[in-house]
Amino acid sequence: MNAAEEQQSAALSVLSLGQLLEHQPPAPVSYLVEPGLLPPQGILFVGGEPKVGKSLLVANLALALAAASDHTGFAIPAARRVLVCQFELPVAQFVSRLATMRRVTGLAADQNLWVDTRATGHLLSASQGLSHFLAAARAAAADVIILDPLYSAHDQDENDTCAMAALCQSLLRLRDVSHAALIVVHHVRKSIGRYEIGSAFRGSSALHAVGDSYLLLTRLSPQVPTVEVRCQFRYTAPQPPRILALDPDTLWFAPAGDPTPTPAARRKVEEADITEILTDLGGAARYTTLRHHIMTRAACSKRTAQLAITAACEQGWIVRHNDQYCLP
What we know:
The chain contains ten helices and twelve strands. The protein has helices at residues 3-13, 17-23, 54-67, 91-105, 127-140, 161-178, 204-207, 271-280, 287-298, 302-315, and strands at residues 43-48, 82-86, 113-115, 144-148, 181-185, 213-221, 224-233, 242-247, 252-255, 284-285, 319-321, 324-326. It has a nine-stranded mixed beta sheet, sandwiched between helices. The chain has a three-stranded antiparallel beta sheet with strand order 10-12-11. 36% of the residues lie in helices and 19% in strands.
């Protein structure tokens, strides 16, 4: 391309704000999954510990999107064409799983849910593999593409930021060329904090650059088929956690009541805590008894209670006499 052609191309691609608003007037975002979980051409990452039910929940979402069903507890405003690229189960076994779930939605999803039966072995990180997924998306005229799991669709080092950034560029290329939203199942780091969501995913520093939403599943009990689902959104206000229960007969997750309450933050042990405890105990108590009552009253650790007793003695709030702690 010569200089004149480059200048002409730039003139066609660089537009003023007025021109952009004239050709693309702003419109309210119509999310594919409410509330704010999946914007049009957005990227949603779904993660959790092994065998927590990530693939089942994503298959539920696939059927719900295809059938415009709210059975999972997430609102689906309209039916969408969904392409599933899953790499873990043989096709026959995956179809059997969908057939079980289909008892809930009936025939509503049949013409909108598509499965890439040759997804295994193709890598997003290779140009040939990316071309395969783009061709599959065109064949399905997909509004949503599901990749389950991401690690089976690439050969990059997930601990290498540069390698993950390159993989994320492939995800963006898939999204931009197909004009579809992506739902990506991805695993999390081995040790994560209780309130981590997006940062819990492997390669999170790179994923944060491309992800619009993050959904993290946590098992509440090994014996009970319920999970806590926590979400993080780029464009909308955060939502409280929700509890989903798995029906083993239908393989569907559904709302199971209010989430467990968030534990109250530990607070500082105050003078009133110690003096009121001693008053209730008759004005004096042995060290272990006083420590126990402080831990119970202030919901603090043993170490914090011990430090509180030491500080109370130094401040003169209490005194030690004959192996007991008393009010002065």
